[in-house]
Structures
1.
Amino acid sequence: MSHQLASQLTSRFFRYLAVTSQSDAAATSLPSTPGQQTLANLLAEELRALRLENVQVDDCATVTAVLPGKAAGAPRIGFITHIDTVDVGLSPHIHPQILRFEGQDLCLNSEQEIWLRVAEHPELVPYQHEEIIFSDGTSVLGADNKAAVTVVMTLLENLRDAATHGDILVAFVPDEEIGLRGAKALDLEKRFNVDFAYTIDCCELGEVVYENFNAASADIRFTGVPAHPMSGKGVLVNPLLMAWDFISHFDRRQTPEHTAGREGYIWFNEMTANASEARLKASIRDFNLTGFAQRKQQINEVAALIAAQYPTGKVEVSISEIYSNISNAIGEDRRAIDLLFAALETLNITAKVTPMRGGTDGAALSAKGLLTPNFFTGAHNFHSRFEFLPVSSFVKSYQVAEQLCLLAARQA
C-alpha cells in the first residue's frame, strides 16, 4: 500500500467530513440542507484549482466538470458520487479517527463508553494489524459517500497531467439518501454526456453491483367515521382498525427482517393515526420486474378489499416509483461491467458480485439509459455509528477507479 496515497486520501477525506451535509427527508428543496451547497461550492472551487474544464455548480448543489483526455477515440467515462450523508438520528457532526486494530475490542468514545465489540462485529476480523477509520461513535462515519467523493477528487488531481486517459466527466449530486433526488434531476445530455459511468458507494473490498432492487413507495390513507363511543354502534368506523386489517393481509415473512439475497418484500415503516384518519407508508422492493408489479398490484387489491369491508370508510392509495434495477438497462454494450472486472483482475482483487438490497445514484442514471454499475469504497456498516473504512481498502478503491480510466484509454 502506498503510504503517500493513503495519506493523500485520508487527509482529503477528513477535510470533507468536516463539512456537515446530512440530507433531510422532510424538506422539499433541492438540496434539502444548506451544508450540501457548502460542500458543492468547495468541490467546485477545488476543481477550478485543478484546471478542469466546464466546471459548473448550481443552486441545487450539483457539481459537474470535465478532465479532457489525450487518448483520442477513447470512451468518455463518468464518475458520479453523492455529497449528502444519511440522517439516522445520530449527530450530523462527524469526528473521524484512525485506530489500529490488533484483534481487540475498540473504544470509539471513552466519555460516552461507546465500544465496538469484535464478538458483535466479526467483519472486523480480516483487518487485524491494519489502520481503520472510524467516527467517534456519536455519528455515522460518512464514508457513504464522502469516501467516493475523496476517491474521485484525488483521481482528478493525480491524472490531470497524465496522457494515458480519455475524457473523464464527474458529477457530485445531493440527496441520494432520500430518494436519489440529485441524480434524478441531473441533465445527462448537457452536463454528464458519457458513454458509461460508475458509482462508488458502500460495500466492502471487491464488491461489484450491477443489480439492485426495483423500488417504490406506497402511501395508504384510511378515512374512518368518527363518533362518540357511547353512540358509536353501527356508526363509528375506526381508521386504526382499517389500517390493522390492511396490514394483516400481507405475509409477515416477506419483510426486510426475514428476507435476503434476491428476495423482495413490502415493508410497512410508518403509521400516523387519529380518530378520523390513519396513514400508512410502505416500501416496495423486488429485483424482478414481474414480482415488483405483483407487489404493487397487491397493495391496490388489498385496499379494495378493505374499502369493501368498511363501506362507509374510505381507502386511498398512492404509489410512487423511486428507482429501478440497474440490470434493466444492460444491453449489448457491457463495456462498463467488463472494464470493471478487468480492473479488479489487474489489481488482483477478487470480485464479489452482489445483488444490492438498496439503490445507488446509478439506478437513477440506468433508468435514463446510462448503464452505471457500482464498486466498493471498502467501508462496512454504513448508516451506523459503527461504520468503518480500512485504509488499505480505501486505497484499493482509488486504484480501481484509476485503473478503469487507464483501461478505457486503451480502447481508443
Note: The two ends are 30 Å apart (CA to CA).
2.
Amino acid sequence: MSHQVDHIISRKHGGLSEPGNLAYACFRCNTWKGSDIASLDPRTGRMTPLFNPRRERWSDHFELRGFVIEPLTIRGEVTARLLKLNLDQRVSERRLLMSLGRFPRPPR
C-alpha cells in the first residue's frame, strides 16, 4: 500500500506546507479525509476536530485491540468514522500486515 503526504490542516483552510502540518497517510485515508479538519459527532451534532498527529498522542484517542482500532474519545470516534479505519477490508489488511510483521506498533 502506498502512502501520500497529507496536509493535516489543508491549504484550503490556511494550512502550510511545513513539517508540522504534514503527515504520511495511506491513499484511502487521504482520499476520505480530503480537506476536512472536523466532523459531526453523530450523538450530539457538534462539530468535532479530527485527530491531529502532530499535536496529539495517538494513545490518548485510539487503542489497537486485536486488529481493530478502537476510538477512546469523541475526537477518536469522528476520525475513525471519517477515515473508515475499521472497514472489514481494512481490518483484514491489518491482520495480514501483522502476520507478516509489517504493521507498525501504535505510537504511545
Note: The chain is about 30% helix and 20% strand.
3.
Amino acid sequence: MRLLVVSNRLPFSVLKENENISLKPSSGGLVSGISSYLDYIKNSPISNFEYLWIGWPGAYIEEKLQENFSDEVLIQHNVVPVFVSEEEMDKFYLGFCNSTIWPLFHYFPSYVKFDNDEWNVYKKVNEYFAEKILDVIKDGDVLWIHDYHLMLLPDMIRKKTDKDIKIGFFLHIPFPSFEIYRIMPRLWRQEILDGIMGSDLVGFHTQEYTHSFLRTILRIKGLSHNLGEVEYDNRIVKIDTFPMGIDFDKFYNSTNNKKTIREKNEIKNQLKNLRIILSVDRLDYTKGVLNRLKGFKKFLKSNPDYLGKVVFILIIVPSRIGVDKYQEMKDSLDKMIGEINGEFGNINWQPIIYQYRHIPFENLVALYNLADVALITPLRDGMNLVAKEYIAAKGKEKNGVLILSEVAGAAKELSEALLVNPNDIDEISNSIKIAIEMDNSLKIEKIENMQRRIRDYNVLEWVKDFLFSLDKIKEENKKNEIKIISDDDTKKILKDFQRSQNRLIMLDYDGTLVDFRSLPYMAVPDKDLIDILEKLSKRANLVILSGRRLDFLEKYFGSMDISLSAEHGAFIKEKGTVWNVMSHSDVNWKTELLTILKHYSNRLPGSYIEEKTFSISFHYRNCDPEMSDIRVKEFMDELINYTSNLNLQILNGNKVFEIRNYEVNKATAAAHFIAKDNFDFIIFIGDDWTDEDVFKLLKDKNAYTIKIGLSSSAAKRNILNISKVRKLLKVLIDE
C-alpha cells in the first residue's frame, strides 16, 4: 500500500536566508496526528507500506531552485512540494480560505468576504495540487486529502485519471448548516459540493457536521442517503463520522520525562501556591478568548477571596496576522488583558500571565499537568485537540478540571467536562468557581473516564478507522462494478439475441426509457425512443410493463406493434388486440385511503395524488426534499399500520409511493407474456422496487435482468442510466 497524504502545508515550513533553505517542523493537530501514524508504521513489521506527503512548503521558492529542492525533500522526507506564488498564496490562503470559508463554516457570516478573483485563485491552486498528484500517482494508491483548502481536489483527480485509486477526504473544521452554507454564491457552493463528492469516503469530526453535509447535499443537489451512503456519479460515496484523536501515550508518558519535570519545578517555584487556570489557543476570533477573559473578570469580581490566589495563564499562538479580523482581535485581546491586570493586579500579583508565542512541547505538557483548570471555550470548533491533550497530560495524577465549550467537537466525547455555553459570561464565571472547588475524588473520576475514552480511540485508531472505511467502500463499489453491464456482457447479449428465434423484450417505462419529470404527464416519449421501439418491435416480441394508467400508454403506444401492461399488470393489451382487465380485486378501500392521502398532501406542499383503477399513487417529486424525507416516513408508518389487516401492498418508488392490491404486480403480467410462447431469449430492464417482482420471477430462468442504477437488486446486472439503456437497445436493432 502507498498512502498519499495531501494537505495545504507540508509537515515542515521552509525558512529562507538568501538562497539558503532550511526546514522547520510544522505544528498543528493534522501534522502531529498523521506524523504519529507514519512513525508507528515505520516502526511496525509492515514491510510493504510507502507514503508521500504532498503540500505547499510554507514559502515561495524561486523557480531556479524548485527542481533541486523537490528532488532533495523527496529523497530525504518523502514529500512532494506544490509551488505557489506569493500573490496567489495571499489570495488563496489569506483570501478565499480564511476570509470566506473559515468564517462561513464557523458561523460568522458577517465576517465573510465574497471575492470572485479569490475564488478563481482557489480553483487554480487546487489545480496545481491536482497536477502534482497526477505526476506521481499509481494504480493502487490511497489518496487522503485534508481540509477546507482543497475541497475541489477530489473531483479534479477523479476526472483526470483512470488509475485504480481510493480517494478519501476529511474536513477538520465544522461543516455548517444548510442555511449558512447556502449564503455562498450558487456556483461556488455547487462546485465545492461536487469537489468533495469526488471522494469515495468523506469524513467529519462529529455526527452534527456529518448530518449538516448530508442535509446540504439533499437540499442543494437532491441527493438522499441510506445509512450515510449516497449514490452519486454512478458510484457510492460514503459520508461518515471519525472524531480525530491525539497521540495519547506521547502526552501521558511525557509528564515524567526529565525536561518536563524540570519545567514543572520551575513553574512551581515561580507561581508558588497559586491555583492555575490555563488556556492555550491560536489567535482566532472563533476561539472565544475575549468571552473567556470576560468570564474570568466576572469570576474575580464575584469572588474577591480568590484575588491573589489564582492565575490565568493565557497562551496565544500567532496566526493569520495578514487577515484584518485577526489583527483587530489581537488589539482587543491586548487591551482587555491590560484592563484586567490593571484593575485587579498589584505589585506582587498579576491575575493574567499572557504569552503570545509558540510553546515548546515539554513546556506545554508541564503546564497541562500542573493546571488546576483548563478553560477552553471556542465559539465554534471542529474538534479542539487541546482539550484532549490536557486530559492525557494529567498522567497518573489525574488532578484537574476541564471547562469546555458545548459547541466544540470534542464535547461529544468529553462529556464529563464542565460544558458551558461560550457566550454565557455568567456560566463561564460560575464554572471556574465550581472547577476550583471541586472535590478531588470527583476530579479523578472524571479524568479517568475521559482518559480511557481518548486512549482507546487515539490518533492511530482514527487513521486506521478512516482507512479501513475507505477500503470497505471501495470494495463495495468494485462489487457494484462487477454487476455493471460491461462491453463483454453487451456482446454476449447480442450474440444470444442473434442466435435466438423467439425473442421477448420487456421494458419498464418511467426511469428506464425516459427520465423522471416534475409532473408525470410531461415524461412523454421522444422521437428517438419511438424510433427505437418501432425498430425493436420488428425484431422481437416487445412489451412495456408500466405503472402508468391505461389511457397514457394507449395514447403514445397503442398504435404500435407492441404489447402493453398498465397499472403494474392490472390491465394488459397484447399487440393487435384490445385492453383486458387482469384484476378483479375489491377497490372499496380506495375511498377511505383517498381521504387520508389528501390530508397528507395538504401537509406536504407540492405533492399530489394520482388515482388509478386499482391503485393510488402519492407523488412528491416537486416537494422540499428535506420536508418530504421527514413527512413520507411518517406517512408510510401510518399507512402500514392502517393497511395491516387489508390485502394491500405499499410500494416505495422514485419520489412516489403506491398503494395497491397484493395480487396486482408486474410479475403477474410478465408471467402472462412469458407463458404465451416458448421464448429462447428473454430480457427485462427496470429501475425501481416495482420491478423487483419481475427480477425475482426471472432469477432462476435463462433470462437477462438489468436494473438501472447501483442500488441493491435481484437483477443479475446493473446499467448506469437511461442513455445506456437506449444504447443497448440500439445494439440489438443494429444486429
Note: The longest strand covers residues 2-9.
4.
Amino acid sequence: ADKNGYISWDDYRLMALRTTFQQNNGEYNEDIHRKYLTHSKQMWESLCSDVGGNKDGKVHFQDLVNFLYELTSRTRHFEELPDFLQNLAIEVFHMIDKKCDMMWDRDEYRFGSVIWCYVTELKEIDKAFESMQSSDDRKRGGITLERFKELVTEFFTSLDANSPSRNIFGPLDPNMADEILCRAAPVC
C-alpha cells in the first residue's frame, strides 16, 4: 500500500479501512471495520507464516515474488493456494460484486480496476475484461465466482505473461512487470 518494497501489518490495516468504506457506500462503520480488521489480521498472519518476515515483522516484496514463483510448479487448483491468497481473492471478489449476484459484470470490473489499478483509459479496462471472458462468461453476462477462482489460480501459477488471467485484478501490461518489480523492491 505504501510502495516501500515491503508488506507490513500497516498495509493490511489500510486495506481493512479501504474495504470498510467501499463496502459501506463511503461511510465509516465501526462494526464493519472491526470485521475487516479481524479478517485482515488472519490474512497477514497467514502471509507471515507462509512467506516469512524480517526482524521488523515485514515481508519483502521480492520474498513474496519468490514464494509465488515456487507455487507455479505445485499448484493447480484454487484450494491449493495458500490461505492468505484465497482469502484475499475472495475478499476482492465480494468487494467488487456490488450487485451481490456472485458475478462480475463489466461495470463492476471497471469499478474495481479504477479503485486498485493505475489505469487512465476506460477502453483499456474494457479490453482487459473482454480478454478474460470465456464464451460461457459472455452468455452469462460476466465472470462468476467459480470462474474468478480459476482465473486467480492461473494468475498466481501461470508463467505465461500473456495469459488473460493477468488482468483479474485490473489491467496488467506484462511488458511492465520487470519495471514494477524493481520499483517495488529496492534490491534491483
Note: Residues 16 and 34 are 8 Å apart (CA to CA).
